[in-house]
What does this fold into?
Amino acid sequence: MSDFSEELIRSKTEDDQEESCVLSGTGMYFPWLQKHIDTVETGGKKEKDFAQTTSACLNRIQEALLKHQWPQAAGYMHSYFQILEDSDSHKRQAAPEISLQHALYLLHHGMLEDANRNLSRAETWRYGEKSSSQEVLINLIQAYKGLLQYYTWSKKKMELSNLDEDDYAYNTASQTMLNHSWKTSVNLGALIQTPGVWDPFVKSYVEMLEFYGDQDGAREVLTNYAYDEKFPSNPNAHVYLYNFLKREKAPREKLISVLKILYQIVPSHKLMLEFHRLLRKSEKKDHHKLGLEVLFGVLDFAGCTKNITAWKYLAKYLRQTLMGNHPAWVQEEWNSRKTWWPSFHFSSFWAKSDWKEDKALACEKALVAGILLGKGCRYFRYICKQDHQVLRKKIRRIRKSVKKHSIVNPGL
It folds into this structure.
């Protein structure tokens, strides 16, 4: 073992046992460093010495990084790679992962040029035959290089928007953008074909394709990302596809089909109210029925209980549905909720709290409560008893609507 290796191990022992996972002042956590060494099988003294040496070296690297001691970190990184060059093949194959983690740290701290150099070094690292996992790692490294190139492209795009098209500087900036877009496409293309969740890479790639007018290419990328069964379920994939189709002014039916899948994954997503509006405008009766289901689904979630828009939509749509002679639709949705919605939404506590915090919200909820639970509902009764000069007419209209449309005692 080299003098440097012995010094590292001895220094590590003297410091007694610095923790293998370190939390920085900014909250960055590095469990991968020691874990990467601990999971390597070692055998014999040579392997044990290697593990001790690399472990000590990596601890020095992480300590220097967390203290922003860049020259020391660079020195230890150089020593680490030298150890890999002189050591066992199993450890040499770990080098790209270490470089990627280091580059991500640099990116996090805005050191883009240093990160790019680190990624280039990791990208060109080769030893022996590449495994499938190493190939994915190299694709990921190249994709992060692509993100850096996209960042440069995006800055040039902003500069371009402020230049005259006849200006020489415009042509120069345009050519620079084109060069970066080509490099980015090459670096991102391989990764986004590999099953996984690649949101920032996909968004960057699609933005560039759209900018250069390749709508078909952008649509293909987003469609594959959303629908390819080899990829994990990802709500964002459907959001990206929906927003793209919306920009393209796609037919309503197409937009509905995309949001229908998003609804099945995340029924409380903020796009669900937009989904309801699309369903409401459709000419299909099953879409109208689904529109009611979507509103109930949104309000099933605690994070949506104060969403006044959702309550306004439900109050209005309940009346429309009942006036359209579809009380069975309302009853179907209510049957699965009548045991828990009263306490979840319509208790005396919520009536007092809502009236105090947001009277407009309280009025919308009172109308819904009255339709679903009748005029004996505590929430409805409390709101209707309030003497508020501005809302007096509105409360009177609420009483009339409940008397006319309540599913509990119709016609009372």
